[in-house]
């Protein structure tokens, strides 16, 4: 006896038995499950992409922002120790080689009033004595000759005139390196660092070359607190010192420095460190 063989017959084979299977309907019914699976996979992929698109966009935007922020700058302040100010002593006038003859003098001083009970008696010279000798603090005989020399010119200039309007003297326009009370930025050092960090823009040329370092500026705080005479003591090139000078010149007024209770101009030194993040 021949063994039984199970022949798997699908529903499509039973329906199209004895019919034309090449017409198209038979093939469509055979691959229907395959099309259904593909459509399901496409739908799942579309919904996954739809819900993950915002997350991917946020990730890309955060990466872009981090790249843009990497071109910022970090500003740090360093203390600069200035050399001590040298005191200039005026040169003494040269003494004459030979001692000149002295004229006779007569003691002629203003009487002083003292607190104790003991009277102090001075010999008051007569008019005849004053005509024969010069007036002085003590009485001396001298050698009988009198010589009057030309006075030395003063080292300063008068600050007033006959009309009562004074001209500024050299001391009034002197720029101090160190004063009793140094100038101060309104709000202190923290406000100054915040101002510089907000206003300084890192030059593109310096960013492209990766330039980092310290720019040192010098400027004068006037008696009214304004910023004058900004100078570059140390630069890095690529537009860094120009940018630092621009921001310092636009600074608001400082509290001016003072010496002996009087406002005076003071020269300050400001180091600014530029660093790429």
UniProtKB/TrEMBL annotation:
Residues 88-168 are annotated as: Disordered. Keywords: Cell inner membrane, Cell membrane, Membrane, Protein transport, Transmembrane, Transmembrane helix, Transport. Residues 132-143 have a biased composition (Polar residues). The chain crosses the membrane at residues 39-61. Residues 187-277 form the TonB C-terminal domain. It holds the Pfam family TonB_C. It is a single-pass membrane protein. Belongs to the TonB family. NCBIfam families: tonB_Cterm (TIGR01352). This is TonB C-terminal domain-containing protein. It comes from Rufibacter radiotolerans. The lineage of its organism: Bacteria, Pseudomonadati, Bacteroidota, Cytophagia, Cytophagales.
